[in-house]
Amino acid sequence: MTVKLEKYHEDYASAIENLIIDDAFVCEDIMGCLKEFPSCAMVARKEASMAAVGVYTGVSEKTSLTFYVHHAYRHQGIGSLLLRALEKEMAEKGIQEVVCDYMVDDSISVFLGRRGYEAWFRSTHMIFSGTLEMPSSPSISPYVDSDYPYVQKILSESFHRMRLHVGLQSSLSAPSEEERFSFLKKAEDIFVLRSEDEILAVAMVEGNEIDKIAVAVDNQGKGYGKLLLSHTVKALLDRGFDEVTLWVVKGNPAQVLYEHFGFKVHRLHEFVHKRLQK
Domain 3-95, what fold? Predict the structure, then answer.
């Protein structure tokens, strides 16, 4: 039977949801990417049946790629065909590097390793569910634009320190007007812990996920992270979410804080990357 690759069309959404019906986590991820980046997706069909889908998250120097091949169509070369086509399209658009992640699985590691993907790091997906009773803290307030230089410095320095701690290459990120504008657009999803005129810590959320949480390097180990974590979790629960999620890089000491707080390990993912341009 012939395998046919096609650019994604929104009419395929229902068939793709049915394709990934056995993995709700991956299905939500891919469907969200398809909705946001429909022009960056391809599907593979075998005769009339949807067999696989892949999508990358826009055109930039580095982008993320996710793809899925249904169990019934694996080990038939369909994944390789789809991956090559996506990589070719990304390279033609000037993308320099692609990042991919998946729940730790030896067979997937072998598949991607043979195609030039190198191991990068592992990250744990954690979930908090239940209730949390706590008074609001007047020291935590919404983000305002004038906070940007201090918030950017905290995020840059704390994540740089964490990456070095777990053995990853790292450099300090520079402030930018583009980032400043993006922070202002999502100000209601940024919580800032203050002490008088000093900003001590910051948390950023997206939906029910704590996307980032960081404490100023000079103020780490003083309980500020736990205070801000409590506030952020309660804020998301108060918004009506049944659970709160986050990712933590394997080896990051913050995982101990999350576990003590009540977060449970959900999935362990392998992150790999590949240079498309030499």
Answer: Aminopeptidase (3.40.630)
